[in-house]
Design a protein that fits this description.
alpha/beta, Glycerol-3-phosphate (1)-acyltransferase, three-stranded mixed β-sheet, three-stranded parallel β-sheet, globular
Amino acid sequence: MICPNHTSNLDVSAISTHLNNYHCFIGKEELLDNYVLNFFFKTIDITVNRESKMSSFRAFKIAGDRLKNGVSVVIFPEATIPDAYPPALHAFKNGPFRLAIEMKVPIIPVTSLNTWKVLWDTGKEFGSRPGICDIFVHKPIETAHLTLGDADALRNEVHAIIKQKLQQA
């Protein structure tokens, strides 16, 4: 289970370049409205309607099946790109951490340091410039010994790891 912070529409592409295994992303259903993204999300990724508990359940069931089959699942635990510019780290949702504990798979925190500087959307302006995206992949955190009661602590640990790396940058 891979859990990166989310600061730009470039995050998916930038993070994918660091993954040398089979992987898929969980993303919001609205991404299907984009012609290019629709192709990828309908064929290899998992979409979720964030307003529907049933859709969330189905998405996590599919994600669990993928994890069982050795496919890494990438979930942005903030569940959105922050509206603030420059982006600030938001609170994390519990879903990815509960799923990792249930499936007994490690969590890999990932910090996206500057994708928002390469491809930005301030709400008023959208643009890009040439640049290097700095992505930091942290050490995996084992979950085999954890119970669902540890989900909040795991979430807080991953948040703290990413926050610390962002503050060092």
